[in-house]
Design a protein that fits this description.
The complex is a heterodimer of chains A (609) and B (599). With 609 residues, chain A is α/β, with parallel strands linked by helices. Helix content of chain A is 62%, strand content 10%. The longest helix of chain A has 53 residues, at 231-283. The radius of gyration of chain A is 36 Å and the shape is elongated. The two termini of chain A are 48 Å apart. Chain B is α/β, with parallel strands linked by helices and 599 residues long. Chain B folds into two domains: 19-336, ABC transporter transmembrane region fold; 358-596, Rossmann fold. In chain B, the strands form two sheets. Chain B has a six-stranded mixed sheet, sandwiched between helices. In chain B, strands 2-1-4-5 form a four-stranded antiparallel sheet, with helices on one face. In chain B, 55% of the residues are buried. Residues 1-10 of chain B have low confidence and may be disordered. Classes of the chains: A alpha/beta (609), B alpha/beta (599). At the A-B interface, helix 3, helix 4, helix 6, helix 9 and helix 10 of A face helix 2, helix 3, helix 4, helix 5 and helix 6 of B.
């Protein structure tokens, strides 16, 4: 981790280091594709050699003598075709090998990154925005392994260059040395291009992200944009960034426009020089026409693949940045430790009655100076219902998070049936405790999958849970009933419907402790009343903890725990607290405004205090 | 908020149109791509011609210079060298100019396309915006366009040049020997014929890859967005299994596509070998018939490489092009999805200022493919009155709000504001006079002031403060450490839900509408804040016509009149007290509300 890692300038060495990781991980497939590439390289050169050989031994003699043996003709045909077929094999091995290697590395890293997402603590998740984590798993992984695609080609090119150099040296030392000058010239041009273009490309990449951010935000707020008629202003905002991106791209393009012809011209210039020198050497009887042809031809065919080295180096900066970003996720620590204990009644199926909940001198702070929970202590006896009531930021949601061990306390402990949550084995808590959050999260799955979460639960029980959650009606009306796909994050349902599916998910597990974190906030009052009624009369023996604002919900509780600024300010039955604690009375009554149906005229009450 | 799963109109996928048609329509949307195209093409021809001069010079040098009839001709060879040098210079300059022009045209054209598509997304009906995955919409103005850009500036140019080079090489080859040219073309014929087949396969394969990318992203987002649920239900294994499956599917789809690419590319290599051998063998045979010289055969062999290079490169580009064409198709798909709410533009009526009176005339509304949500609703709302619309989930009450603010048009019947059909009112005037405050007050990642100013673009800080004071929010605003400069965070998430609503109300107040439509928020907020919101609402509604989609009893109680919607029909209407006495649907709703209030 650390910012210096992601902002430092990527060097060639870093790029090779990233590639080395991939090579170590997939040595065999790398070897295969490299052999393919070498084959391709060697045979491309062999092509030139065959042409040279055929010129010298077949074409020129044939024209000179006016005759030719059939065997020689077949040899020419066989040589060219054999070389071509082997080369084709090389191409397939190289390209497919590079592809397989690249996609394997992507898959390895995506699996590793998502395993981290699943094991890292909630605090870590809260610090990292969704968009960033998604791009870590997607585009950063892709960027990290981008250079694998041109890698075998580049390795092959290096080999091809070596072979070509050997061939040229064999053909004619002098001409070869002149031809060789093309290679450093091409590499030099490449490096110059990298240096000039890569800052622009980095800038363009950043602008692309900004363009995408604006689009995302603007489409997210489409309703506001539309109803206030601000489409024009939004388009202008987007256009400004799009134009900036365009201008940077054009600038980068201009550099490219210089680079491309230079790269194309260098080998041609080389060929001309080789010809000039070659001709003079032929005139002086120092070499043959075939040798000149061979060297010139080798130069031409090597000039194009040599660009692949440029492509490889060009991918490096992006690759190193992506790899570093992925590694900040992979290197993150803070995984929760689990004990070995289980709770009674977990897994074995039948409920054995409600669980006992002990909250013991609990302390928690996101920020050292501002404790969110301080010395919170209370016990909920099995089968009882307790309402957690408190103003915003009084610590209610933190408390429910601690109860389900999304985070561990800084001090004190939470025990279920006397067992500290930290002593439970992984998964044991979920067997006995279920929470329904305020914001329902639905999986991209069917209704059934969203309720069972893959557990083997008969449909009859699923329907029973849906009925208790007052969701059976609308689910039955869906086109495919339980098999209806709920789409990405269940967007096709209303907020209240989503909450009810989420509630059924908890109920179907017959938890011994059920925690409702303001879980019916988006449900119509009438429906909420029916849910609460069903909860009261249904699985009566589960222990129930509800975070509530509405009096009806609070009325369900045997006891109220009133939280104020992270401490238990008062506890007791609702009626009693109303009389005993003015703060509590203010809080509860302020929300309800005037009691309906008690004869008073409806009116807005004044400011609380 | 309708109980039925909205089957909204979806964005055109554009899958049906072919590659050529895609290009044609794409260019029509980005006219810049056509600008100066002839000039660019001329430059390309020049650049290509130059590329061919070098091998000719080689041939001439060898044939006429080195092996000339009267022995080596040095001066001829020198002049050939100069011609070649000049050709290289010309080619370089021409291809610089061509590349620079193409970059400029392509980027201008694509920026235009991007902006048009962005604007069009906002013009799409809300229904379409909601049914389409947001990520997919964003990708159409970002990565899809980027793909086209990659293709146009690298692939596109190189493809045009490659084809050009291929043709020029063919012409020059034909000048040397039409027979050998025929041989070369015959050798490449199987490749050209198989291209169509591979293109189709590749198109399918890349289509699958893109689908799998979407599926994979959606699987990966589960443990990120739903971290708390995954953890508290201990479904890590199942979640990981689903992700692994999606990753594996993406991997195998990509590998398959790569397989086709590799295979189609290797065919080019085999054809090239065949052509080389054919040229030499047939060349010798022609030589015996005195049709061709040795130098010409050798030069021809050079020309074949000039032909082979572009063919292989062109094949590869066609492969990559499948991705880009698919991207282009998707952007075109967006642009060709009709924006069914047509703005009458400058010919539209302008609403006079002052409270608006509303009339719904036999309004029926059905979501596409669904049953009617509103049946034949007719009602009048006097200007300046305060109306609450109530009804159960799925009754159609939210639809009324969307029709009044023209987020949707009725399937039949009409909505009239001040006696004018909303479809005839100019968009600018409509948005000026009618404001909807949605359930969730969406905020942009900017300061509080910038978000408030969204209601009135030229509002000064003083105006905003004054407006907040009018709503009774002065002390709240003063209590914020950074006041108007408070950054609200992504979607306003640095503020609490209640504070977001306050900003939304402030925004609406600055907009100063004549008709205010409110979709009441249901999520619970801090009671103290709740009261502020109530107070601000009260002040916001005074002096305007207001229609509130009510979820709370008190809202209905405070309204001048309550309209009760049940199963798509208006079943009751009148002041709260009268309706309670009357019983009926409202009586039932009221009873459950009262029960809700608890003791």
């Amino acid at each position: 981790m650390g910012p210096e890692r992601s902002t430092r300038r990527a060097t060639l060495r870093d790029g090779f280091a990233v590639l080395w990781v991939a090579i170590k991980r997939e040595p065999r497939i790398f070897a295969l594709s490299t052999v393919g590439s070498l084959l391709f390289g060697a045979l491309t050169v062999a092509d030139a050699w065959v042409l040279g050989w055929a010129t010298e031994h077949v074409v020129l003699p044939a024209f000179r003598d006016g005759e030719i043996g059939a065997g020689l003709l077949w040899a020419v045909l066989g040589l060219f075709l054999g070389v071509a077929i082997l080369r084709a094999v090389g191409i397939v091995a190289r390209r497919l090998g590079a592809g397989v290697m690249q996609y394997r590395m992507q898959a390895h890293y995506r699996r590793a990154v998502t395993r981290q997402y699943l094991s890292l603590p909630m605090e870590w998740h809260q610090r990292h925005p969704t968009g960033q984590l998604l791009s870590n798993a997607n585009s950063d992984v892709e960027a990290a392994w981008g250079p694998i695609a041109p890698l075998p080609m580049a390795v092959g090119t290096v080999a091809m260059m070596l072979i070509a150099v050997g061939q040229m040296l064999l053909a004619d030392l002098m001409l070869a040395l002149i031809g060789l000058l093309v290679f450093p010239a091409v590499i030099g041009a490449n490096l110059a291009y990298q240096r000039l273009a890569s800052p622009l490309m980095t800038k363009a990449q950043a602008l692309r992200a900004e363009v995408s951010e604006i689009a995302h935000e603007s489409f997210d707020g489409a309703m506001v944009v539309k109803t206030l008629g601000r489409e024009g202003e939004e388009t202008a905002r987007f256009a400004a960034k799009a134009h900036e991106l365009r201008n940077v791209s054009i600038k980068a393009g201009r550099i490219r426009a210089v680079f491309d012809p230079t790269l194309a011209a260098l080998p041609n210039i080389g060929v001309l020089i080789v010809l000039a020198v070659g001709v003079s050497r032929v005139l002086h009887g120092q070499t043959g026409a075939g040798e000149v042809v061979t060297v010139a031809y080798l130069l031409t065919i090597v000039s194009f693949p040599i660009r692949s080295i440029g492509w490889l180096l060009g991918e490096f900066p992006r690759s190193v940045v992506g790899f570093d970003r992925v590694h900040t996720v992979l290197d993150a620590t803070g995984e929760m430790e689990y004990g070995a204990r289980r709770l009674d009644g977990g897994k074995s199926g039948q409920p054995v009655g409600g669980a006992r909940l002990d909250v013991d001198h609990l302390a928690y702070a996101y920020d050292r100076d501002q404790p969110v929970l301080d010395e919170v202590t209370f016990t909920v006896e099995p089968g009882r219902t307790v309402a957690l009531v408190g103003a915003t930021a009084s610590g209610k949601s933190t408390l429910t998070g601690l109860m389900t061990r999304l985070v561990d306390p800084d001090g004190g402990a939470i025990r279920v049936d006397g067992v500290d949550l930290r002593d439970l084995r992984r998964g044991a808590l979920a067997e006995s405790v279920a929470v329904v959050p305020q914001t329902a999260f639905l999986f991209d799955d069917t209704v059934r999958g969203n309720v069972t979460l893959g557990a083997d639960i008969p449909d009859a029980e699923v329907w029973a849970a849906l009925r208790t959650a007052q969701a059976d009606g609308f689910v039955a009306a869906l086109s495919d009933g339980l098999d209806t796909k709920l789409g990405e994050r269940g967007t096709s349902l209303s907020g209240g419907q989503r909450q009810r599916i989420s509630l059924a998910r908890a109920l179907v597990r017959h938890p011994r402790l059920l925690i409702l974190d303001d879980a019916t906030s988006a449900v119509d009052p009438e429906v909420e009343a029916r849910i609460l009624g069903a909860l009261r009369s249904g699985d009566g023996d589960a222990t129930l903890v509800v975070v509530a604002y509405r009096k009806a919900t609070i009325g369900l509780a045997d006891e109220v725990i009133f939280l104020d600024e992270g401490r238990v300010a008062a506890r007791g039955p609702h009626d009693e607290l109303l009389e005993r604690s003015p703060d509590y009375a203010n809080l509860v009554n302020a929300y309800e405004q005037p009691e309906a149906g008690d004869g008073r005229e409806p009116q807005l009450t004044g400011e609380g205090r | 908020m309708s109980a039925t799963v909205a089957a909204g109109t979806t964005v055109e996928t554009g899958e049906e149109i072919g590659a050529i048609e895609t290009l044609r329509r794409g260019v029509a949307f980005s006219p810049e791509l056509k600008e100066g195209f002839v000039g660019t093409l001329l430059l390309a021809v020049l650049a290509t011609l130059g590329q061919v001069i070098v091998p000719i010079a080689v041939q001439q040098t060898l044939d006429r210079g080195l092996n000339g009839p009267d022995g080596p001709d040095v001066s001829f060879m020198v002049s050939m060298g100069l011609v070649a040098g000049a050709a290289i210079l010309l080619t370089s300059i021409a291809s610089y100019a061509m590349t620079a022009r193409l970059f400029s045209r392509a980027e201008h054209g694509l920026a235009t396309l991007r902006i048009k598509a962005f604007r069009h997304v906002h013009d799409l009906p809300l229904l379409t915006q909601n049914t389409e995955r947001r990520g997919a919409l964003v990708s159409r103005v970002t990565s899809d366009v980027d793909q086209i850009s990659q293709f146009l500036v690298f692939g596109g140019i190189m493809f045009v040049v490659s084809v050009g080079q291929m043709l020029v090489a063919t012409v020059i080859m034909a000048i040397y020997s039409w027979q050998l040219t025929l041989v070369v073309w015959l050798c490449f014929l199987p490749l050209f014929l198989s291209l169509r087949f591979f293109q189709r396969k590749l198109s399918d394969a890349y289509g699958t890859v893109r689908q799998q990318v979407g599926a994979m992203l959606s699987a990966i987002s589960e443990p990120v967005v739903g971290a708390a649920v995954v953890r508290s239900y201990a479904v890590e294994h199942r979640t990981q299994a689903r992700i692994d499956e999606a990753i594996a599917r993406h991997q195998s789809a990509s590998t398959r596509a790569q397989g086709y690419t590799a295979f189609s590319f290797s065919l080019g290599g085999i054809s090239a070998g065949l052509a080389n051998a054919g040229v030499l063998v047939i060349g010798i045979w022609l030589g015996f018939a005195d049709q061709i010289t040795a130098g010409e055969v050798l030069a021809f062999a050079f020309l074949v490489t000039l032909f082979v290079g572009p063919v292989q490169f062109g094949t590869q580009i066609l492969t990559d092009a499948q991705n880009a064409i698919a991207g282009w198709r998707r952007v075109i798909g967006i642009l060709e999805t009709p924006a069914d709410l047509v703005d009458p533009g400058p010919d539209g009526e302008v609403l006079p200022r002052g409270p608006i009176d509303i009339e719904l005339r036999e309004v029926t509304f059905a979501y596409p493919g669904g049953p009617p949500v509103l049946h034949d609703v007719s009602l009048r709302i006097e200007s300046g009155s305060r109306i609450a619309v109530v009804g159960e989930t799925g009754s159609g009450k939210s639809t009324v709000a969307k029709l009044l603010t023209r987020l949707m048009d009725p399937t039949s019947g009409s909505v009239l504001l001040d006696g004018v059909d909303v479809r005839d009112i100019g968009d600018a005037s409509l948005r000026r006079s009618v404001v909807l405050v949605p359930q969730e007050g969406f905020l942009f990642d900017d300061t509080l002031a910038a978000n408030a100013r969204y209601g009135k673009l030229d509002a000064t800080d003083e105006e905003i403060v004054a407006s907040a004071a009018e709503l009774g929010l002065a002390d709240w605003l003063a209590g914020l450490p950074r006041g108007l400069r408070t950054p609200v965070g992504q979607r306003g998430e640095s503020l609490s839900a209640g504070e977001r609503q306050l900003v939304a109300l402030l925004r609406a107040h600055l907009a100063d509408p004549d008709l205010l439509v409110l979709d009441e928020a249901t999520s619970a907020v801090d009671p103290a804040l709740e009261m502020r919101i109530g107070q601000a609402l009260e002040r916001l509604m005074s002096g305007r016509t207001s229609v509130t989609i009510a979820h709370r009893l008190t809202t209905a109680e405070n309204a001048d009149e309550v309209i009760v919607v049940d199963r798509g029909r208006v079943v009751q209407r009148g002041p709260h007290a009268d309706l309670v006495a009357e019983g009926g649907v409202y009586g039932g709703l009221h009873a459950s509300w009262v029960a809700q209030q608890g003791k």
